[in-house]
Amino acid sequence: MKLICIGRNYAEHAKEMNSAIPTEPIFFLKPDTAVIKDNQPFYYPDFSKEIHHEVELIIKINKAGKNIAPEFANKYYDEIGIGIDFTARDIQNKCKEKGLPWEKAKAFDGSAPIGQFIDKKNISDLNNINFHLTINGNTIQKGNTKDLLFSFDTIIAYVSKFFTLKTGDLIFTGTPEGVGPVATGDQLEAYIENKKLLSFEIK
Ligand code: MG
Description:
The chain is of the alpha+beta class.
């Protein structure tokens, strides 16, 4: 199973990072060792002093596909979830400065907590999904899929040109604005609409 993560897919987040708004999807991979399930805690790694949360909706791929046409992309997922694309921002900034790959900053163990998934049949409009992250009960990030630069179907079509998608692969679809640091002891909760699907502690 692989995790494919889309970068800069909300314009306001690209702006807060002083990054250009992309004209085609930007993506990177995380290995399966990045996944944290079942609301298990995230252990703050000793190699970073600046771990940032990025709350993101996740598409779960339900069958194998390659070169998927955008008009058929919706047949490749039944479920939507929510998770965190944890980022060691201090390390990422150094990698960016030097033009080096981001994996150390993005794909480390535990960098992808994922919550429960919901059937997309229960979502009335995929282009109008509200989601948000709370830390210690305060809303810290919120987004809506109407602000996506590249829709779920566009992402699937684009990514599948390069990588064969397989059953169980997860696509993180990008974070809205409001990213920031987490600290030991924080309790993070992520919601799609009013449904809490993920809840875990930073240890
Ligand atoms: Mg992200």
